[in-house]
Design a protein that fits this description.
Layout: H1 2-19, H2 23-38, H3 43-57, H4 61-65, H5 83-99, H6 118-125, H7 131-145, H8 154-160, E1 185-191, E2 194-202, E3 207-209, H9 214-217, H10 221-227, H11 229-233, E4 240-247, H12 251-269, H13 274-279
Parallel strand pairs: 3-4
Antiparallel strand pairs: 1-2, 2-4
Helix pairs in contact: 5-7, 5-8, 7-8, 10-12
């Protein structure tokens, strides 16, 4: 009986010793247990678990769960060659259908607008739009521009704005040329590389060009008639005196430049003659010039004679 009691006492002491073991031995035991547990988990299982954790906790869980959704482009012209022009074309067509029945102004009363040419529009948007499509779109834009200003919607103004020039040339005002205290009017004309300045004053029809008479300045009869063409067509040969300075170019260019200068000075004295002078071609600048010589050619267009050998 004593032996049994002594055995129970030994077991009780052994249990108390096991519960009071050091923390270091407990941590070692826990680490061994964790190592044993980790030895049974593979890397693939761990990545799958982390991915599930990220999907569940992220804000874009719905997007991650549907990875095959294709984004929709904002513009219907996204897959076309000319996206910006097509968008503008579609917008103008929609505006024409929506506001095509609004009252319009007569053609003469609508504000004059400088529209972009095909080349200017291509350069502005950076796309090579077709000429036929641009003409059709511009026709619709001009039709929308004729809507009465009091009824003009704001979206119509924004829709046709890309087809207008940045500077409206029709709003420019010509600088008035005054008559000085001596009764002289001044005009400047150019032709090719020649430039002429003419002063016109009421007189008896005397003409001085670089201090010379008309016959001394121009030897050809055609050049003399060209120089005074404005006065001759308006029948003012004996009413004004002309004093002019010409420089540059040849006699033909100087004579035609002088004709333009005299016509401008005559329009200052008599503004009513401006329209007839323009119809006579005296106020229009002639842009033609000598074409440059090309490499491999004798002149601008002429090629050397072909020789067989």
């Amino acid at each position: 009986m004593s032996t049994l009691r002594n055995g129970f006492r030994c077991l009780r002491d052994l249990h108390a010793t096991a519960t009071r073991q050091s923390p270091s031995s407990a941590s070692i035991k826990a680490s061994r247990t964790s190592k044993i547990c980790r030895s049974f988990t593979t890397s693939a299982t761990r990545r799958d678990y982390q991915l599930e954790q990220a999907v569940d906790t992220s804000d874009a869980a719905a997007e991650l769960k549907t990875p095959h959704v294709r984004p929709m482009p904002v513009s219907p012209s996204y897959f076309s060659r000319h996206t910006q022009f097509n968008d503008s074309f579609v917008l103008v067509q929609d505006l024409a259908r929506k506001y095509g029945r609004l009252p319009t102004l007569p053609p003469g009363q609508a504000e004059r607008v400088a529209w972009k040419t095909k080349e200017q529009y291509r350069l502005a948007i950076g796309e090579r739009a077709k000429g036929r499509d641009y003409v059709t779109c511009l026709t619709l834009a001009k039709r929308l521009h004729q809507i009465h200003p009091d009824l003009m919607p704001e979206e119509v103004l924004e829709g046709i704005r890309p087809f207008k020039r940045d500077i409206n040339i029709y709003l420019n005002k010509a600088k008035p040329i005054p008559i000085d205290k001596f009764g002289r009017s001044h005009g400047v004309g150019r032709r090719k590389s020649s430039m002429a300045r003419a002063w016109l004053v009421e007189g008896t029809g005397e003409v001085l060009i670089n201090g010379k008479t008309l016959n001394d300045a121009f030897g050809r009869v055609h050049d003399r008639e060209s120089a005074l063409w404005g006065l001759k067509t308006m029948d003012r040969m004996d009413k004004y005196n002309v004093w002019a300075l010409v420089e540059g170019g040849g006699t033909t260019g100087q004579a035609e430049a002088l004709a333009m200068a005299i016509a401008k000075a005559l329009a200052v004295h008599e503004p009513a003659l401006k329209t007839p002078l323009r119809k006579a071609g005296c106020l229009t600048r002639d842009p033609r010039k000598v074409e440059r010589k090309k490499a491999g050619h004798v002149k601008a267009r002429k090629s050397p004679a072909w020789v067989k050998r």
